[in-house]
Amino acid sequence: METMNKTAITVETTVHAPVAKVWACWNEPQHITNWAFASDDWHAPHAENDLREGGKFKTTMAAKDGSMGFDFKGVYTSLKDQGMIAYTILDGRKVNIAFTAKGEATHIVETFEAEDNLLPELQQDGWQAILDNFKKYVEANR
Description:
The chain is an alpha+beta fold. The protein is 24% helix and 42% strand.
């Protein structure tokens, strides 16, 4: 589902952990299942990740009560080890993530094209909540 006028939304955080640790937690399925959800009543029971240009990923996100869930899928279009990830979600929207080492911390900036059927503010809140959950997970598991 291609959009005509794509709105770019950016979320960001600084994780107090070295970029190598942040990169591993972002990309390894055993870590992804511990943080890839926006609230405590959701979880990520399954993740697959083929981290290479042309590689695919899939993360299953689901309500813990079983009432709803979905697979978040995409294909990697560009990578720079421990520095940048770009991918296209299966609906055609593009996502870019930059990882910048700041001493023993890592700054993450994630920019994505908004969906047409949800308010941009709601999308930003949801993606920021997932990013905040990622930060919490990494910092608790240093």
